[in-house]
Amino acid sequence: MFAFCGRGGIEMPRLGEVFTGRVRDVSSAGAGIVEHPGGRVFFVSGVWVGEEARFRITGFRNRFGYARLEELLAPAQERVTPRCAHHGPGPSDCGGCPWQFVDYGAQLAAKENRLKAALSPLGLADKPLPIWPSPRPYGYRNRAQLKTDGERIGYVAAGSRRIAPVEDCPILTDRNRTHLRELLEQLPNSRWRQRKRGRWTTVDMDEEGVSIDRRRPFRQGNSDQNLRMRDWLKARLAPLDRRLPVLELFAGSGNFTEVIADTGFEHIVAVEGVGEAIDRLRARGLPGVETWRQDLFADGAWRRLGRNLEEVGILVADPPRRGIENARGLATAARKCRDLVYVSCDPATFARDLGVFLEAGYSALEIQPLDQFPHTPHVEMLAHLHRDV
Ligand SMILES: C[S@@+](CC[C@H](N)C(=O)[O-])C[C@H]1O[C@@H](n2cnc3c(N)ncnc32)[C@H](O)[C@@H]1O
């Protein structure tokens, strides 16, 4: 690879080159962000904000690049010893918990900062309340997806398409750790062999069991934090008029539907796209709840909800990371809606959608972040918006 000079005689980065830099931030995927002396930005796993180090360039993508830590010159005070033997930034290490080497308090501060940065263009940087830490920083994860090729079982390695085999996983709940031990005892297993390159057998587990090559219905991944979310929702709904029709979007198997029904609302429509989830929701037989299976990202999704949307007084939405993609259409169609509870797992799409609801006349009464997934950059938000109609 040739070195070449850009404008002004600054040397452009080369593959394999080692440069010295300071980590200026962390990305939404958890990697350190470092600037090359030539100005190009590189993502580096396993480094923390403020650290000075030597980095080796490993690849380029569009205007960015990737590098790996070569030598840590000034480590951050926030560094701690990871509890998991499989944690690390290397190509054969597990990529599941990229921040396990960082003190938990510093992780929480980074999550708060990310949310503030996302809300800053809306003038709401100071709106979020302090983040709720996970009561259990380890042993919290009640669901997980692993991969196996019949010889090994593990997670997908950091920044690669390889299985990082694991013998244990301390973020899993005790029950899931037991599932993992039982799965390991079944290796080698010819039924789990890789049928195609890059296509492993998938192992989904949760507190209820293990499925091979079949996704289990969504559930909130941290049971302690889910209880807090449910309590929060109940407290926000409690003062509202029970006669107002409630529309719940992305209802899953009814985790929040149950809270809405328990609060005593008379008419609730719960909408969800996955058949197995809606079957479970129906099987709960919740009073006042009508279930509706629909793809909420399809064109015309709001139109198809018809009067359920036109008449709604209270909206509850808990979308996947994509957020409520056509929030403008939703805000326009739900013209009688006064209260909107938005549960989000992505600060960027949350801020995008929030901007639309603010334009539609809502104001943000409360934004409560919480940590569902310690040692990862994931951050969850609970928001209560209101407008007078
Ligand atoms: C973050 S989960 C929330 C589930 C539920 N509120 C809970 O607490 O368990 C998002 C839900 O959106 C559903 N979903 C994803 N894509 C969808 C789509 N295109 N249309 C409708 N629902 C969808 C998922 O199946 C999942 O149940």
Q: How many individual β-strands?
A: 17
Attached small molecules: S-adenosylmethionine
- What percent of residues adopt helix (DSSP H or I)? 10-25%
Instruction: Report the average pLDDT across residues.
Output: 94
Beta fraction of the residues?
A: 25-35%
Strand order in the sheet with the most strands? 13-12-11-14-15-17-16
| Main CATH class of the largest domain | Alpha Beta
What name goes with the CATH superfamily of the largest domain? Vaccinia Virus protein VP39
How many domains, in number, for the residues? 3
How would you classify the helix and strand content by structural class? alpha/beta
Give the CATH architecture of the largest domain.
3-Layer(aba) Sandwich
Order of helices and strands, N to C?
Answer: EEEEEHEEEHEEHEHEHEHEHEHEE
Please report the distance between the alpha carbons of the first and last residues. Answer: 64 Å
> Which of globular, elongated, flat, extended, rod-shaped describes the shape?
globular
**What kind of sheet is the major sheet?**
7 strands, mixed
DSSP summary: helix tally: 8
CATH topology of the largest domain: Rossmann fold
